[in-house]
Each structure stands twice: as C-alpha cells, then as structure tokens.
C-alpha cells in the first residue's frame, strides 16, 4: 500500500523555539521566556527540567536581556520567516506545523481584546505560506502560556484559565479561518512530567502537586473540547487533532512483574488520547485517582462538553521508546523526551541519551491505530545532534539521513499493514532552541542556523546534506528513501 496521494509532508516548529523577538510588538512574557539555558552535562539526568520556583521566575522577570534565556531570541524566525518558508518550499513542503504564541495576541492572557500587532503578524505569516501553497497546521498551545497566568493562578490548576484560553483560541479561529488543521495542546500528557512548562504550575505553590497536575490536565481536556467544538461549528471544513508524546514502553524482561510495570506506563501514556478521542475517562484512570487519593474536580457538565468535543485525528511526537521494570533500581537509566527511562540494551542512543528505535515507530502506529481506528498524523520525529559547519558552509549530517530513512521505512511498513496515516512533519526542519535545555547546539534541522548557545553568530541559514535528501523523499512521496 502506498502513502496517500495527498500525504501531508512537512516540518514542525513552535513559536517559542524559533521566533525570538520576545519583547517586540507588545508581546507578553511566556513561561518559555523564563526557561534558563542548561548545558548537556549528564545524559542520565538531562531530561529533567531546571527546577522552577518563584525566586528564579522573579529573577527572569527582572532580567531585561536574552542572556541565559535563549528562547527569547529563538533563531530570529520572527524576522526571517520569509527566508525560512522559501527554503521549506524548496524542499516541497505541503504543510508547516507552527504555533501561535498566545502572548503575542494576549500578552498577559487576561486582556479582553487581542493585541493588533500580534494578530497582524500571523496574518502575514499565513499569507506567506499561502504563496507556496503550504498549509499551516496550527498548535494552539505549545509550552508557551502567558507567565502572568502561571504566577497569578498557578496556571491550569485554576478553571479561569480555561476561559482565557478559549478567548485566545476564538480570536485565532476568527482571524485565521484559512487554517484547515488545528492541534489544541502539544504533548498534553506532559503536564505530569513538566508541570510548569506545560501547565504553568509552580510546584512550591501546590499543596498536592500530583493532584494539581491531574486537575490542570482535566481543565486542558475541557478547554481542548470546547475549542474543538468551536472549530467544528465555525470552520466546518477544518479538522482538529489531539497531540500526544508517544512514549511506547517495553518491559525490561518477560517477568510478569515487569510486564505489569510496562502496561501501567503505557496505560498512563494512552490516557489523554482516550479522553480526547472517546470523550470519557478510562475506568482504570478513575481508579488510579482513587488509589492515589487524588480528589479531581470533574463535573457532569464538563464531561458533557468533553464528550461533545472529540477530535478528528490523533497526532503525536515520536522520538524514542522506553523500558520499564517493576524494580527500577535494576535498570541502567538514560534520558529521553521529557522522561528518564531504562536504557534498552538492544538499541543505540543519541548524543543526548535518547534511544533510537525506528521499529518502535511502526509499533506505536500499529498500537494507536488498533486502539482508536482514527486517522493518525506523525507531527514530530527527528534527531538532536551536534552538527559541524564546515568552512565551505556545508554540513554532512549522514547520521540524520540514516535516522529519518529508518523511521520513514517503519512508517511505511505500518501503512502497508493498514494504518491510516495523514502525514509526517519532522521536528524541526530548521535548527531551533531546544525545548528541554534551551541549547542551540542540539540541532534538529535540515537547515543549519549559524548561532551558538550564547546567541553569537550570523544567523545565516545553510542547507545540510539532509536537506536535499528530504526534498527527494517528498518528490517521490516517500517511495525513494
Ligand atoms: C517535543 C516538543 O517534546 O520534543 C518540542 O514538542 C521539542 O517542543 C522536541 O523541541 C525535542 O525536544 P528537545 O528538548 O530536544 O528540544
């Protein structure tokens, strides 16, 4: 079976990792603007976010430069988006996944009317994409909520934030009706792994952090469903997806104890998709709340909205797989995407410790499709590596080509077996600031950006070897990898 004729090839970025221009055109501070740079000192621990507390938030607020806060400068995408889109068009992109920074439209999140400069900016962005017939896929929340809502309400723990988010989304729907593909929350399941980045929760303000995380998640489900309904009503042609971190977990041995540990890890990973696809909480999760003595406020009215706002497709990121054991101390650990997990002895890891598991992508696609029978969309996949820029401005990233080739091969195998797959967007088609560490030196792009961790450099863009390779993949609709 071939890929769909209209297979949506492209790349994915997030506003806070590419745009920079953190204090331009009335933009407000977001949680990303207070994320400090962290060097990659220990791959066993690096997935952990820098501890966030009121003191370092205040220090960040008082700091009026981008020093130490690389997401404030991004890769200057705010000014260079035309150049970047021309390069994406050269590769033949059909789609570009990007996010709309909430703080450009609503600087504190609480304004009643949007900031005109912010609204105008994304109009220009979408018009530029239109020139190349590249369809935008818009993520409405990608780790960049207004800092004000975190500080004032402890983020999504407070139901008021639902209304603020819905107001922001309504503006997006009204102002950008040409957008056909929408994702509500990036990696919604990550609230329980990095509560500040995903939900604006400042841990020291929580009496019971686990309870607050699940409460925040519930309100994100509510907001997501409300917005999904709204898009369905206001833009009947458009489609809405949920977005998960697909953390496929393997048991470390065939000991039933380890199988159970792995099952539990997968159940927690599926939980958010279960709610957003089926419109109800899985019974195992409701019991998990009871067993953990979590008192989550969930009303019948909220559940009605959640049941009416289910998604049209399931999108997900896939970088690596996990290993679980009943006794974690028996495992060697390694870093991964927002997690630390057992190291798989059968697989290699990247320089940042992430397990490279192409077959895991096929397994993930099969499992997701088997569970939900909904169209799937891979909206993030890629390898972070320390590329070398040669004197002649070439970058020989054969390791990246190998990574993509192997993953796309497994993706095609899954389609061959009957999975309905809408498209594939690599993360990030251009080098950008790392979400977890704010490093520039952890590079994902087909396009190199000449900037270092301290923000020095020309910010010129150069095509890596993988650029031409991906272009050819798209030209042949994945037939030639
Ligand atoms: C995903 C995020 O978790 O992984 C992206 O949606 C992120 O925002 C990507 O950039 C890769 O992670 P990192 O930490 O290497 O940038």
From TrEMBL:
GO terms for biological process: carbohydrate catabolic process. The active site is at residue 380. Keywords: Glycosidase, Hydrolase. SUPFAM superfamilies: (Trans)glycosidases. GO terms for molecular function: beta-glucosidase activity. It comes from the Bacteria. It holds the Pfam family Glyco_hydro_1. One of its GO terms (cellular component) is cytosol. PANTHER family: 6-PHOSPHO-BETA-GLUCOSIDASE ASCB-RELATED, GLYCOSYL HYDROLASE. Belongs to the glycosyl hydrolase 1 family. This is 6-phospho-beta-glucosidase. It comes from Liquorilactobacillus mali KCTC 3596 = DSM 20444.
């Amino acid at each position: 079976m071939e890929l769909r004729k209209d297979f949506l090839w492209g790349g994915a970025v997030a506003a806070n990792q590419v745009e920079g221009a953190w204090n331009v055109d009335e933009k407000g501070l977001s949680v990303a603007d207070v994320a400090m740079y962290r060097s990659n000192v220990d791959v066993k621990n690096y997935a952990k976010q820098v501890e966030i507390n009121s003191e370092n938030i205040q220090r960040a607020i008082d700091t009026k430069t981008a020093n130490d806060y690389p997401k404030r400068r991004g890769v200057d995408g705010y000014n260079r988006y035309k150049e970047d889109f021309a390069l994406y068009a050269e590769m033949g992109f059909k789609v570009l996944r990007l996010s709309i920074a909430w703080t450009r439209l609503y600087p504190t999140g609480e304004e009643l009317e949007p900031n005109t400069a912010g609204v105008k900016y994304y109009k220009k962005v979408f018009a530029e994409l239109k020139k190349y017939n590249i369809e935008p896929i818009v993520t409405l929340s990608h780790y960049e909520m207004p800092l004000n809502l975190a500080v004032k309400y402890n983020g999504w723990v407070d139901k008021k934030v639902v209304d603020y988010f819905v107001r922001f989304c309504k503006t997006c729907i009204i102002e950008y009706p040409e957008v056909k593909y929408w994702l509500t929350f990036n990696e919604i399941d990550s609230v329980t792994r990095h509560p500040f980045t995903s939900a604006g929760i400042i841990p020291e303000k929580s009496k019971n952090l686990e309870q607050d995380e699940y409460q925040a998640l519930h309100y994100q489900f509510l907001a997501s469903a409300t917005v999904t309904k709204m898009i369905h009503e206001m833009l009947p042609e458009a489609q809405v997806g949920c977005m998960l971190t697909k953390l496929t977990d393997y048991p470390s041995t065939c000991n039933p104890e380890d199988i159970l540990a792995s099952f539990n890890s997968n159940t927690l990973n599926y939980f958010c998709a279960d709610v957003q696809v089926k419109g109800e909480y899985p019974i195992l999760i409701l019991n998990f709340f009871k067993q953990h003595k979590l008192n989550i406020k969930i009303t019948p009215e909220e559940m009605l909205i959640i049941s009416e706002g289910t998604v049209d497709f399931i999108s997900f990121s896939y970088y690596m797989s996990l290993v679980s054991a009943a006794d974690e101390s028996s495992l060697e650990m390694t870093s991964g995407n927002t997690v630390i997990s057992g190291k798989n002895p059968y697989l290699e890891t990247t320089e940042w410790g992430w397990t490279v598991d192409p077959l895991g992508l096929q397994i993930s696609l099969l499992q997701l499709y088997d569970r939900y029978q909904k169209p799937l969309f891979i909206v993030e996949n890629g390898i972070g590596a320390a590329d070398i820029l040669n004197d002649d401005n070439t970058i020989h990233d054969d390791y990246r080509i190998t990574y993509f080739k192997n993953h796309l091969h497994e993706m095609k195998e899954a389609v061959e077996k009957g999975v309905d797959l809408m498209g594939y967007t690599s993360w990030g088609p251009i080098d950008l600031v790392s979400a977890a560490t704010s490093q520039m030196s952890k590079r994902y792009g087909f396009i190199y950006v000449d900037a270092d961790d301290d923000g020095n450099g020309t910010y010129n863009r150069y095509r890596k070897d993988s650029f031409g390779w991906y272009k050819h993949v798209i030209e042949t609709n994945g037939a030639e990898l």
